[in-house]
């Protein structure tokens, strides 16, 4: 990424953070997370339309991906019940075609089978990946702000947050997609 683009991204992020009056530690964390390369495992299971599969292409790099991460610290049982709340992001991705939305859960061992069963029962039309080893979670901050992010084709973080969270977020996200 060229210096001018980095400066623009930095100024956008800082202006957004200043308006929210966040502390300096969080600002530093955001700046550090942007452009971080996230290693995506290929050894995940996923549930789609009521069937359990083994993922073979989650780490593919032919398209930008908006990741929604539910960590082992989250209530994964609750998340399964509310995954429909992500439908607007899937619809947006399907219409836009420049990115896809990816849901990843890292359930604790003691609830893993229950989560799989719940996902099979819910029969979501999109895949929900299960990172049993927690390899993605290990690369993230515990702050939930960092649990929705856009990766470019090089697996580098380009955007943080829900692009449908506000009109301004959507504008920033759309500008970011145009530059990828």
Task: Describe the overall structure.
Helices cover 37% and strands 18% of the residues. It is α/β, with parallel strands linked by helices. It has a single domain (37-179), classed as Glutaredoxin (3-Layer(aba) Sandwich), CATH 3.40.30.10. It has a seven-stranded mixed beta sheet with strand order 2-1-5-4-3-6-7, covered by helices on one side. Strand 1 and strand 2 form a beta hairpin. The longest helix has 17 residues, at 3-19. The relative contact order is 0.20.
Helix-strand blueprint:
Layout: H1 3-19, H2 24-33, E1 45-48, E2 51-54, E3 64-70, H3 76-81, H4 87-96, E4 99-105, H5 112-122, E5 128-130, E6 148-151, E7 157-160, H6 167-179
Parallel strand pairs: 3-4, 4-5
Antiparallel strand pairs: 1-2, 1-5, 3-6, 6-7
In short:
By secondary structure, the chain is α/β, with parallel strands linked by helices. The protein has helices spanning 3-19, 24-33, 76-81, 87-96, 112-122, 167-179, and strands at 45-48, 51-54, 64-70, 99-105, 128-130, 148-151, 157-160.
